[in-house]
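Appendix C reproduces, verbatim, an entry submitted by the partner laboratory led by Prof. M.T., so that reviewers can inspect both the input and the predicted structure.
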Amino acid sequence: MVSRAVPLSGRYIIKNDAFMREKAERDDPRTPFYKALLSSSTFEEYYKAGGDVAVEVPTYKKCKITPHHEIKYILYNKWIERC
């Protein structure tokens, strides 16, 4: 099981749907996380859809990326907004 630190909870809205859909279609190990984001409307649904996985990203060498890492990155970049 992959640790998620402190999971986020509640609803979110996607600020740029077209951008998120484009990211979900890329050849990238994080694609399942973006697909989970698009198919969900709450953080709880996102975590369930994202699964207990960690992926290696060639451009990020510090550690493997989990759904929790990616959703925190997405929030940081303001691609989604908490409701």
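Strands lie at 12-14, 55-57, 60-65, 80-82. Additional entries are available on request from the coordinating office.
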